[in-house]
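quick one before i forget lol
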Amino acid sequence: MLSFRKHLRQQQRVSDKILADVFFDVDEFIELIVRKQARRTTWKENRYIRMQVKQNPKAAQAWQDAKETSPHEHFSLYGYHPPLKRVLAVCGLVALIAVGVYALMRRYDISVQVHIEPKETYNPRFTKKPLGEIAAMIEGTYAKKVVFDRAEIRQKLLSGKMDTSKGLEDFLEDLRNNGVDNYMDDKGLIHIR
């Protein structure tokens, strides 16, 4: 079976080349070459320069003119790559430092140990605890100050669980259901009466 796709694609590429020649601006391209030499171009601009120099005769001529007008500068279509000697010297220096540190650690018997302490688990359950201790739990968990309107209420014993996934209002409602009257004032203080 015959396919015309290949021929249509080539025809499209030829038309793209014609459009590139029509819309190609030599001055902008030379400005881009100057920016490339100053290493102020993006990788997309570098790719555009390479493509234009290979495909567009005007771009190739502009590239050649730029090379001839500045013979003391190095013009390359590809990005800057440091000399191989410098790369090898840096790698060798890093390896030498690593070997030296390893040798010192072995010589002086230096060892690095990581000790991870288990996290203290917060037990929100309380059994027959005085309301004063529960108030301290509220202050630690929700960062709200608890004030007792009567001093004798501090000794009242309660049992239950503080569910930290729920909000403070839910916990205060649970306290109200267990006979502990409380409210929050305008300043954000929790009053237990």
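fyi The first helix runs from residue 5 to 23.
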